[in-house]
Amino acid sequence: MTLTSGLGGQLSIDLGALARNWRALDKVSAGALTAAVVKADAYGTGIEMASKALHAAGARFFFVATPDEGMAVRAAVPEAHIFVLYGLYPGAANLYIRQNLMPVLSSMAMLEEWLAKCVERNEAYPSAFHFDTGINRLGFRLGEAGAVRERIEKLGYAPQMVMSHLACADQPNHEKNRTQLALFGSVMAQFPGIPASLANSAGLMTGRDYHFQMVRPGVALYGGRAVNGRKNPMSPVVTLHVPILQVTEGRTGEAVGYGASHTLNRNSRLAVLGYGYADGFPRSLSGTNARPGGKVFIRGKPCPVLGKISMDLTVVDITELGPDLPGPGEGAEVFGPNIGVDEQADAAGTIGYELLTALKGRYSRNYVGDGNLPDG
C-alpha cells in the first residue's frame, strides 16, 4: 500500500463496521437497552464521528468518563442520553444541568451535592447510582445502600438507574462473576422498580442473567476482543498503516536500535518506519536477541520488529520480502486485515483496549463506511 497523504501514517476507521457491531450486540441483548461507551475518544476512533455513527445505528444512551467527553457527545448528538462515569465533579452541578449530563453518583458526598442542587432548583435532575460489588474502584459501598435509599426517600428522588461493574467478565467461568451478580441483586432489592445495569462487553456476551435493563458495551463496539479464550465475533473497525521512511542494509554482527539489544545474525534488509512509542506503538513490542517483539505487515507478509522501538522510529526486518523491495512512502500495516489489534496487544503483553485508546499518533484519520450517518 502506498500512502497517499504524504504526511505520515493513515488511520482508517470503518464507521459501517462500528454500526454493525452495535447492531449485533443489540440483537444479543434483546430485551435490554444497548448503550454505547464512547469514553477515551471512543476508544481512539474519534468521539464525534463514532457517536454519530452509533446514534445512526440506533444507540440512544452513551457513557463517557468526563464532563468534557459528555459535552463532545452532546454537540455531536444533541438528543443523546449521556451518563458521566466519573460522577459529579465538586462544584460542577450547574454544568451538568446545562449540558443535560447525568452523573453516575458513587459517594455520599456526590449524592448530597446533587440532591442539594435538585432542592435548590426544585427539580429532580436525573442521575445513576454506582455500587461497588467487588472491584474496589468507584462506587458506593454495599453497606451504604440502605442509607442511600433512606436519603432519597426523604426527598422523593429516584435515580434513572442503579449500576455496578464486573471485575472478571472476560473470564466467563470465573466465580467472581456469580458473586458480583448475587451482590448486585442485593443492591437492587433496596431500589425496587429502578432500572439496573451490570454488563460491559464481556458481561453482555457471558449470559442474559447479566443483562438487566441496560448493557454497556465498549471495546466490542470497536472490534476488540472482550472475552478471553473465545473467537472474537466482532468486525474490525480500525486499520493503521504507517510510512516506510528508508530501506537500508545491515550486516551480520551489527546492532539495531538503542542499547544494541538486537544484533543481526545474518545480512539483512531493514525498513525504518515513521512510527514509535509517541504514536502508540509500545516499547514492549521491541525485538531483541533475547525475545521476539511485534511485527507489521508489508505487502501482506509479516516483518518482525528489530531492536528497541524509539519515540519516532521503528525498524523491521524485510529480508523475507525478496529482491523487490518497498520504497519510501509505502505503508506498513500495524492493525488491519493481516493483524488485529488484539494480536498486536498479545505480543506487547497488554490488551487491545490499551492499543486502541493510544491511537493519538501523528497520522491522518480517514473515515469510511458512513454507518448510515444522517446528512450534515
From TrEMBL:
Modified residues (N6-(pyridoxal phosphate)lysine): K39
Gene Ontology MF, one: alanine racemase activity
Pathway(s) per entry: Amino-acid biosynthesis; D-alanine biosynthesis; D-alanine from L-alanine: step 1/1
Active site: K39, Y258
Domain Alanine racemase C-terminal: 237-368
Gene3D superfamilies listed in its UniProt record: Alanine racemase (3.20.20.10), Lyase, Ornithine Decarboxylase, Chain A, domain 1 (2.40.37.10)
UniProt signal peptide: none
A Pfam family assignment: Ala_racemase_C
Binding site for substrate: R137, M311
Keywords: Isomerase, Pyridoxal phosphate
EC number of this enzyme: 5.1.1.1
Catalysed reactions, as listed in the record: L-alanine = D-alanine
Presence of the UniProt keyword Isomerase in the record: yes
Requisite cofactors: pyridoxal 5'-phosphate
SMART domains listed in its UniProt record: Ala_racemase_C
Function: Catalyzes the interconversion of L-alanine and D-alanine. May also act on other amino acids.
NCBIfam families with a match to the protein in the record: alr
Family of the protein in this entry: Belongs to the alanine racemase family.
Protein's UniProt name: Alanine racemase
Upper classification of the organism: Bacteria, Pseudomonadati, Pseudomonadota, Alphaproteobacteria, Hyphomicrobiales
